[in-house]
Specification:
Blueprint: E1 3-10, E2 26-29, H1 35-43, E3 48-53, E4 71-73, E5 76-77, H2 80-92, E6 97-103, H3 108-114, H4 122-126, H5 129-150, E7 154-160, H6 176-188, H7 200-203, H8 219-246, E8 252-255, H9 274-279, E9 285-289, H10 307-312, E10 316-321, H11 338-342, H12 351-367, E11 371-375, H13 387-400, E12 412-416, H14 418-421, H15 449-457, E13 464-468, E14 482-484, H16 493-503, E15 509-513, H17 529-533, E16 542-546, E17 551-555, H18 563-573, E18 585-587, E19 591-595, E20 610-615
Parallel strand pairs: 2-3, 2-11, 3-6, 6-7, 7-8, 8-9, 9-10, 10-11, 12-13, 12-14, 14-15, 15-17
Antiparallel strand pairs: 1-19, 1-20, 4-5, 16-17, 18-19
Length: 618
C-alpha cells in the first residue's frame, strides 16, 4: 500500500480546535461538460459539481467553457448558455448542487476594445476604471440570473481572472493605464516617485548582492511590488463585495493567494497581499491546487496557500486535486487527441501510482479540514480501473469526518513573510539582468525557500503547519518545537518584538537562511544577521547556537540544509517523528495519513497511547 489513512482514538487533553467552516465539502470539477463522469460521481455520493462559466480561451488554444459566450459586449449578456450549461449537468445528475466559478477575464472582443488582455496583463486591465465598472455590472447580473433560477442549488461562487484564471500576472512591462494607477496609488499614500512605474531594468538590480533592495535607496522598487499586488487584491475584494451582495450573502472566494508557488517570482505573480483579502468579511474561501513540485510518488506535495492564515480567520480552504493520471502520458509521436497532447509528461508511472497519489492528497485535505474537488481538467482523469472505487471510499471517509474539527498536531512551524518578499528581486528579472537574484557565491538565496524547505520537511516523517508572520501573535504556538523562518529577511523593531514575544522562547529552535534581519525596513546592515543567527553573515555550513531561551540554526547557503541535516536539526529540537523513514505524514488529533513510495511493514510511532487505531481505507 502506498498511501494509508488511519483514525486514532487518542487519549489526550488540552488541544483546542480551530473554527473550521463545516461541513467539509467534496466536489467534482472539469472544464468540460463530462456528463457521464458527473453522473458517476453523483452515484458515488458526490453530487456537488464545480463548473466554470467562462468567456476565455485557455493557453492551450481551446475555450475553458464548451458553451457559447455569455458576455457579448459592454452591458450586453446572453444567459441562455448558462441555462444549457447547468441544465445539462442537472439532466446527468438531477440532485446536483453547484459551486460556480465565474470568469472575469476579458473576452476577445473586450481585449480588442481595451487593448489589453487580462489573461496575461491582469494588473493593466484592473487599472482601467472602464473594465472595473463593466465587470461589476456583468458579475451582478450573472449572479442574480443564476440565483433566480438555481439559487437553491448554489453553495458558493469562486471568482476567476488573470493568467490561468488564478489572478496571476505574467507581464511586468509598463503601460499608460498602469502608470496612471501607480500615480493615484502613490498620491493616496503621500509617496513622491516618478510618474511611471519602475522599469524592468531597474527592478532587475538590488543593492545587497543584487538580491535584496535597500529601503534607504530603493524603496520605490519595494513599494512598486506592493502596488503590483495591491491592484489584484483590491479587485478581488471589490468583486467579492459585489458577488456577496448579488447572491444574498452566499460564500464567495477566489483561486488566489499562492505564496508557496515556486522560487522564481514571489512578487511578480501579484498574490502577496493575500492576508488583507482573507481577513475581509466579504471573502469566505480561498482555493488552489497542490504545488507542482513533489507530486511524484514518495513526494509530499502540499498546498500553494498559507493554510494557517485561512484557518486563523475561519475561512474555507478549498483544495484542488488535479493530478494527471499515468494513462494520459504520451507514449510516442503522432498523438492527435488534445488531451494526449496537453498531458505530455506525468509524475505517475503506473496505475498503483495514480491511485496512491490521489489518495495521498485527498487524505491531505481531509486531515487539514479542507474542502476539495476532484479536478478532471480536460477529461479522462479518473477512468482507470480502481479509481472510481477509491474515490467512492474516500468520499465515504470524508462524509464521516465532514463535521470533525480535531485540532492539528504539527510541531514544525513554517513562516511565510510577504513583507520580506517585497524586498527581493523577482527571479524572472534575471532575463533582463544576467545574474539577477544570484548572489556573488553563485546561488539564488532563499527565493522560494519556504516552498523548498517545506518540500524537504514534507518527507521527513514529521508534521508541519504554515502561518503568515502576521498570524504569530494571534495563534497558539505552544505545540511548535521548531520554526522555519528562511524567508524572514526584513525585521523591523515591531517584527523583532513579535519574534521575541511569541517565537524565540521556550527552548524553541529557529531555522534561518542567508540573511535574516539584514533589513530593518529602513536600512540594510549585514551585521544584524548575528542578532538572529548567532553567527556572522556568510558563516559556512550549518551552525547551531544557544541563544537566550532558544536555539538558532543558520545556513548561509540553504542548500546545506539537506533533508538529512534537517532531520538532525528537527530531532535535536524535540520534534516528533511519526516514522523512522523519510516519508510524508499529515496528522490531526484524530486522523493520521501516511504516504510511502514503497510498501511493506512499517513502524509508526504514536506520541501517546491510543484506545483504538482503525485503517479507514481497508
Amino acid at each position: 500500500m502506498k498511501a494509508s489513512l488511519f483514525a486514532l482514538a487518542v487519549a489526550s487533553a488540552g488541544l483546542t480546535a480551530a473554527a473550521y467552516p463545516r461541513p467539509q465539502m467534496m466536489a467534482y470539477r472539469s472544464f468540460l461538460p463530462e456528463l457521464e463522469e458527473t453522473a458517476r460521481f453523483a452515484d458515488m455520493g458526490i453530487p456537488l459539481r464545480t463548473t466554470f462559466i467562462a468567456n476565455t480561451i485557455s493557453a492551450n488554444g481551446v475555450p475553458y467553457c464548451q458553451y457559447p459566450l455569455v458576455w457579448k459586449q459592454f452591458g450586453e449578456y446572453d444567459f441562455a448558455p448558462v441555462d444549457r450549461h447547468l441544465g445539462d449537468i442537472l439532466k446527468a445528475s438531477p440532485n446536483a448542487q453547484f459551486i460556480l466559478m465565474l470568469d472575469l477575464n476579458t473576452p476577445i472582443w473586450m481585449t480588442r476594445r481595451l487593448h489589453h488582455d487580462s489573461f496575461n496583463e491582469i494588473t493593466h486591465v484592473l487599472s482601467m476604471p472602464k473594465y472595473r465598472t463593466e465587470a461589476r455590472d456583468y458579475l451582478t447580473k450573472l449572479i442574480r440570473y443564476v440565483e433566480k433560477g438555481y439559487g437553491d442549488r448554489v453553495k458558493g461562487y469562486i471568482l476567476m481572472c488573470g493568467h490561468t484564471s488564478e489572478w496571476f500576472e505574467r507581464n511586468l512591462r509598463q503601460s499608460h493605464v498602469k502608470n496612471l494607477a501607480w500615480r493615484a496609488w502613490c498620491a493616496e499614500r503621500g509617496l513622491k516617485y516618478g510618474k511611471s512605474t519602475p522599469t524592468e531594468d531597474a527592478l532587475a538590480t538590488g543593492a545587497f548582492e543584487n538580491v535584496i533592495y535597500d529601503p534607504a535607496t530603493e524603496q520605490e522598487k519595494i513599494d512598486f511590488w506592493k502596488f503590483h499586488s495591491w491592484i489584484i487584491s483590491d479587485a478581488v475584494l471589490d468583486f467579492a463585495k459585489v458577488a456577496k451582495a448579488a447572491s444574498g450573502g452566499k460564500p464567495v472566494g477566489a483561486s488566489y493567494g499562492y505564496y508557496m508557488i515556486c522560487d522564481k517570482d514571489p512578487c511578480g505573480v501579484g498574490n502577496l497581499d493575500y492576508e488583507r483579502v482573507i481577513a475581509s468579511p466579504d471573502f469566505d474561501m480561498i482555493t488552489s491546487p497542490a504545488t507542482y513540485s513533489g507530486r511524484e510518488i514518495g513526494g509530499g506535495t502540499g498546498s500553494m496557500l498559507v493554510a494557517g492564515t485561512s484557518r486563523r480567520y475561519g475561512k474555507r480552504f478549498y483544495y484542488s486535486i488535479d493530478f494527471w493520471p499515468h494513462s494520459l502520458a504520451v507514449q510516442g509521436a503522432g498523438e492527435t487527441s488534445f488531451r494526449r497532447r496537453f498531458f505530455r509528461t506525468t509524475y505517475f508511472k503506473t496505475l498503483a501510482d495514480t491511485i496512491a497519489g490521489n489518495t495521498r492528497n485527498a487524505a491531505f485535505a481531509i486531515v487539514q479540514h479542507a474542502d476539495f474537488h476532484w479536478f478532471d481538467q480536460w477529461g479522462d482523469f479518473y477512468r482507470d480501473p480502481g479509481m472510481h472505487e477509491r474515490i467512492a471510499k474516500l468520499a465515504e471517509i470524508q462524509k464521516r469526518f465532514a463535521t470533525d474539527d480535531s485540532a492539528p498536531l504539527a510541531d514544525v512551524l513554517i513562516v511565510a513573510d510577504p513583507d520580506s518578499a517585497y524586498s527581493r528581486i523577482d527571479r524572472r528579472m534575471a532575463a533582463y539582468e544576467p545574474g539577477g537574484a544570484t548572489c556573488p557565491d553563485g546561488f539564488v538565496p532563499a527565493l522560494g525557500c519556504g516552498e523548498e524547505f517545506r518540500n524537504r520537511i514534507n518527507r521527513l516523517g514529521v508534521v508541519y503547519d504554515v502561518y503568515s508572520f502576521n498570524d504569530l501573535p494571534h495563534v497558539d504556538l505552544s505545540r511548535f518545537k521548531a520554526g522555519v523562518l528562511s524567508d524572514v529577511w526584513t525585521i523591523s523593531p515591531e517584527k523583532a518584538k513579535v519574534l521575541r514575544d511569541h517565537v524565540l522562547k521556550d527552548g524553541r529552535t529557529a531555522i534561518w537562511a542567508y540573511a535574516p534581519g539584514v533589513s530593518d525596513g529602513k536600512t540594510l546592515d549585514a551585521g544584524r544577521v548575528h542578532t538572529w543567527a548567532g553567527v556572522d553573515f556568510k558563516t559556512p555550513g550549518v551552525t547551531t547556537t544557544a541563544m537566550d531561551g532558544w536555539k538558532a540554526v543558520y545556513a548561509y547557503d540553504y542548500r546545506e540544509l539537506t533533508p538529512e541535516k534537517f532531520r538532525e536539526v528537527l530531532k535535536a529540537a524535540g520534534c516528533h517523528f511519526w516514522m523512522d523513514e523519510p516519508v510524508p505524514v499529515m496528522v490531526n488529533r484524530r486522523l493520521l495519513s501516511i504516504h510511502v513510495k514503497e510498501g511493506g511493514r512499517k513502524a509508526v510511532h504514536l506520541p501517546r497511547k491510543c484506545a483504538k487505531v482503525v485503517d479507514l481505507l481497508n
